[in-house]
C-alpha cells in the first residue's frame, strides 16, 4: 500500500487504510469529469461527499468499483490496487477477475434502490452471497434474516419490492449490500428519491452502521448527516476536491467561497 513514507511506531496504532484513491481522472468524450481526485479513508471512516449536481460525485463512486473505468489514477481497496491497461486509446481493467474480487469488498447503495423486482426481499438479500460468493444457503438465509431485522424490515422478507415503501426498499437494498460482507459501503444519494417523511428511517440505519465502525463513503445532500455522522467531509467542484476536512471545521468555518455558496444554497 502506498501511503508514502516508511512505517513508524505510530503507524501501528493507526487504523488501516480501507480506500486509497490518487489522482483519479475520467473523461466522457470531450468532457473531463474527474480532473485528478484523491481520497483516503481509514477503516471506520465515514466520508460525506458533497457537491452540486454534475460535479462528478457519482462518477467518482462508480469508478471505485469499475462501473466506470477511470482513464488514469490509482485505486486501492482493502490493500489491493486495481490494475488498468491501455488498449487502442481506451483504458480497461487489467484483470477481470480482480474486478470481480474487488466488487465483493464493496457494497453499493444507489438512489434508485435497484432491487430485483421478481425476487422477494429475502431472495434479493441472499442472491449475491449464494450465487456469486457461493456460500452455504442456510447460513446466508440466517444472516440475511438478521440483517433484515437490523434494518427493521424482517416482517417484509417474503414480500416483493413493489409492495414496500421507498424507505423500506432502500433499507432492503442496504441489507443486500451488507450481506456480501463488504469492507466498504458506498452510498450514492441514498435518500434523494424518497418522500421526505421516509428519509429519516434510512438515515437512522446509516447512522447505526457508522456507529458500528463501518467504512462508508456517502454522497449526500443531507447536511445534518454530513455534519453529525461523518469523520471527514469532501466538497467536489467541477471534478476537483475544492475543500475537505473535519465536519466541525468545514461547517463552522468553510474556506472556499464555492463551498460557502453551496452551503447557503442547501440550508
Ligand atoms: P454528480 O453525481 O456530481 O451529479 P456525475 O458524476 O453524475 O455528477 O456527472 C458529472 C458529469 O459527467 C455530468 O456533466 C454528467 O452529465 C456527465 N456524465 C456522467 N456520466 C456520463 C456518461 N456515462 N456519459 C457521458 N457523460 C456523463
Ligand atoms: Mg450523482
Classify the beta-strand content into a percent band: 25-35%
Q: Which regions contain 5 or more consecutive residues with pLDDT less than 50? A: 1-5
Distance between the termini: 39 Å
The spatial strand order of the largest sheet comes to: 8-9-10-3-11-12
- The whole-number mean of residue pLDDT values reads 93
Tally of separate helices: 9
Task: Kindly state the number of beta strands.
Answer: 12
Rg for CA atoms = 19 Å
- In N-to-C order, the SSE pattern is EEEHEEEEHEHHHEHEHEEHH
Which outline best applies? globular
Structural class: alpha/beta
Give the distinct bound molecules.
adenosine-5'-diphosphate, magnesium ion
- Give the proportion of residues in helices: 25-40%
| Sheet having the most strands | 6 strands, mixed
Q: Quaternary status of these chains?
A: single chain
Summarize the structure in words.
- With 267 residues, the chain is an alpha/beta fold.
- Helices cover 36% and strands 27% of the residues.
- It contains nine helices and twelve strands.
- The chain has helices at residues 57-64, 96-104, 121-132, 137-150, 166-179, 196-211, 223-229, 247-252, 257-266; strands at residues 17-28, 31-42, 46-50, 72-77, 80-81, 84-87, 90-93, 106-109, 184-188, 215-219, 232-237, 240-245.
- Strands 8-9-10-3-11-12 form a six-stranded mixed β-sheet, sandwiched between helices.
- Helix 3 (121-132) runs parallel beside helix 5, helix 4 (137-150) crosses helix 5 (166-179) and helix 5 (166-179) runs parallel beside helix 6 (196-211).
- It is globular, with a radius of gyration of 19 Å.
- It starts with 16 loop residues before the first strand and ends with a helix.
- Residues 1-5 have low confidence and may be disordered.
- Residues 57-58, 188 line the site of magnesium ion.
- Magnesium ion is lined by residues 57-58, 188.
